[in-house]
């Protein structure tokens, strides 16, 4: 399987068929598993084989198929599926640190990721240093001999900064730190984070992996030693496991993710080019545009693909942004992304509303900023709708 090309892996990777030889992956909706005798039960609790399961919180055949398929796609030795993207982020970080440890993190993060660092890990005695993730000199100045983890979003939410994975990894590894990358916006389709030096990769499977707004899920990927020796004990005892039904949804999503994400990124590029320089905008932010600060990095790190999300900073602040949102006829207003439907969000009042005004200014989350997650609709329809909504925003 490791020699297969990406789309083949996405359709066939990790399949384990029951005695009925079903075509579509089976959903094993069971909490527990029956043992043939007491001796077998005892042996399984000592050490379980690859096709032996104990309890749904510890593992499940459907969940295992999803873990194997996404690991095959990402190029890691193993994976652990979690109940949500944030369960995955929390597990990846918390399993690696203890009181007194030091973490260096990019400051441009999703609000809940910031909460884990500032309010959960810090409250348990973990020291956190925030840096401008795009500035390698700040990473060099921040890491110390006792730094355990360097954490960042490879493409930040919602301002779409692209961080040099290889550059940060070299700095982190020089002091023995583990590189944990939240890779949602880069997607497993475009990113090669493992090759670029990431040790642990996290996805919210709720986003592009499901891609159709149906279910929550998350996954953490890395070496077998880390996944089974460090992460799994934390996750299975704290209860952050993925349900078998949701794992099945994610398996179905993986079959088409390459097709969907490439189409969405192509449309996102067209929309960004269509609105660039529009009089209603202070700026159009899209990593695929040549004027993006990290566009050169996008060419090497993401194969020139700017992703499925763009951000539009509209003149006139919140009032104009709300006019824009309310004038759109195709996109839906929600706070998810990576969906088949185009979704628009006003981060300052929703996903990042808990941040102080100072933090919002520092991160570039202006009152007029709109996060625009591109779906699978016709690009011509979306461009026409965005252009008329921009005009309405200034009326």
Q: Please state the CA-atom Rg, rounded to the nearest Å.
A: 21 Å
CATH superfamily of the largest domain: Type I PLP-dependent aspartate aminotransferase-like (Major domain)
The low-confidence parts are none
Shape: globular
**Count of distinct strands:** 12
- Fraction of helical residues: 40-55%
- What is the total domain count? 2
Number of helices: 14
* Shape-level CATH architecture of the largest domain: 3-Layer(aba) Sandwich
Into which percentage range does the β-strand content fall? 5-15%
Folded structure, characterized:
The structure is a single chain. The chain is of the alpha/beta class and 395 residues long. It folds into two domains: 6-253, Aspartate Aminotransferase, domain 2, CATH 3.40.640; 258-393, Aspartate Aminotransferase, domain 1, CATH 3.90.1150. Helices cover 40% and strands 15% of the residues. The protein is built from 14 helices and twelve strands. It has helices at residues 6-12, 38-46, 61-74, 85-94, 111-121, 136-142, 165-174, 187-190, 224-238, 244-275, 295-301, 317-327, 357-363, 379-393, and strands at 78-82, 102-106, 127-131, 147-153, 178-182, 200-204, 218-222, 281-285, 309-314, 332-333, 343-345, 369-373. The chain has a seven-stranded mixed sheet, sandwiched between helices. Strands 8-9-12-11-10 form a five-stranded mixed sheet. Strand 5, helix 8 (187-190) and strand 6 form a beta-alpha-beta unit. Helix 12 packs across helix 14. The termini are far apart. The model has no long low-confidence stretch (mean pLDDT 96).
């Amino acid at each position: 399987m490791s020699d297969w090309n990406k789309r083949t892996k996405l359709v066939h990777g990790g399949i384990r068929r029951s005695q009925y030889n079903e075509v579509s992956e089976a959903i094993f909706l069971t909490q527990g598993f029956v043992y043939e005798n007491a001796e077998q039960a005892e042996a399984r609790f000592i050490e379980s084989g690859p096709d032996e399961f104990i309890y749904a919180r510890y593992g499940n055949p459907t969940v295992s198929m999803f873990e194997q398929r996404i690991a095959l796609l990402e190029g890691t030795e193993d994976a652990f599926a979690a109940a949500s993207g944030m369960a995955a982020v929390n597990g990846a970080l918390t399993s690696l640190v203890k009181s007194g440890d030091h973490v260096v993190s990019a400051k441009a993060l999703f609000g809940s990721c910031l909460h884990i660092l500032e309010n959960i890990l810090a409250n348990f005695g973990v020291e956190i240093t925030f840096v401008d993730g795009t500035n390698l000199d700040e990473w060099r100045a921040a890491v110390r001999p006792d730094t355990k983890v360097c954490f960042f979003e490879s493409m930040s939410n919602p301002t779409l900064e692209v961080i040099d994975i290889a550059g940060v990894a070299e700095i982190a590894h020089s002091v023995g730190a583990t590189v944990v990358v939240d890779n949602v916006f880069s997607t497993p389709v475009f990113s090669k984070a493992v090759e670029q030096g990431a040790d642990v990769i996290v996805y919210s499977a709720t986003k592009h992996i499901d891609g159709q707004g149906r279910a929550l899920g998350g996954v953490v990927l890395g070496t077998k030693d880390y996944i089974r020796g460090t992460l799994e004990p934390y996750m299975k005892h704290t209860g952050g496991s993925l349900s078998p039904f949701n794992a099945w949804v994610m398996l179905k999503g993986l079959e088409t993710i390459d097709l969907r994400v490439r189409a969405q990124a192509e449309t996102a590029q067209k929309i960004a080019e269509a609105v660039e320089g529009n009089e209603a905008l202070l700026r159009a932010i899209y990593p695929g545009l040549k004027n993006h600060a990290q566009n050169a990095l996008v060419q090497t790190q993401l194969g020139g693909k700017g992703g499925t999300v763009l951000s539009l900073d509209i003149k006139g602040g919140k009032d104009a942004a709300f006019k824009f949102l309310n004038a759109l006829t195709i996109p839906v207003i929600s706070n998810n992304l990576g969906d088949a439907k185009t979704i628009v969000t006003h981060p300052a009042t929703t996903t990042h509303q808990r941040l102080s005004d100072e933090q919002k200014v520092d991160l570039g989350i202006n009152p007029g900023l709109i996060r625009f997650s591109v779906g699978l609709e016709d690009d011509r329809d979306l461009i026409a709708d965005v252009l008329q909504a921009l005009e309405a925003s200034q009326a």
